[in-house]
Design a protein that fits this description.
Order of helices and strands: HEEEEEEEE
Oligomer: single chain
Number of helices: 1
Strand order of the largest sheet: 2-8-7-4-5
Helix content: 10-25%
Radius of gyration: 19 Å
Shape: elongated
Distance between the termini: 70 Å
Largest sheet: 5 strands, mixed
Length: 116
């Protein structure tokens, strides 16, 4: 009976406070529109001391860049993902998607533009 009471109490606490177990994953960039020679700087927050996978998807859906980074003790992260090259068939002008994926599987996407 005591075990049943503890299980019900734990369920009620979990249901009433779903944010207790939620991971915070934030993704930001220094700009929303880039031109050649501008650095693509990303930053945000996630769980502390955790690996993150950062991907940059080209307008055609292929992976234009890929990197793994670690969050700091306070959960923050930042990196220069790339310096935009001159446009080419591999890196054309268009809308790109920056994606960050946490170890838990949670992910965030952000659209950016590469333009003249």
């Amino acid at each position: 009976m005591k075990l049943l009471f503890l299980v019900i109490t734990a369920l009620l606490v979990g249901i009433s406070s779903p944010d207790i177990f939620a991971e915070t994953l934030e993704l930001n960039t220094n700009q929303s529109v880039y031109s050649p020679q501008h650095p693509l700087f990303i930053y945000g927050e996630a769980e502390s001391n955790q690996p993150l996978v950062v991907r940059l998807f080209a307008p055609d859906g292929t992976t234009a860049n890929f990197e793994q980074i670690m969050t700091k003790k306070d959960g923050s992260y930042s990196t220069i993902l790339m310096k935009w090259p001159e446009p080419s068939t591999e890196i054309p002008y268009g809308t790109y998607v920056v994606q960050i994926v946490a170890q838990s599987g949670e992910s965030k996407n952000l659209n950016i533009k590469f333009a003249a």
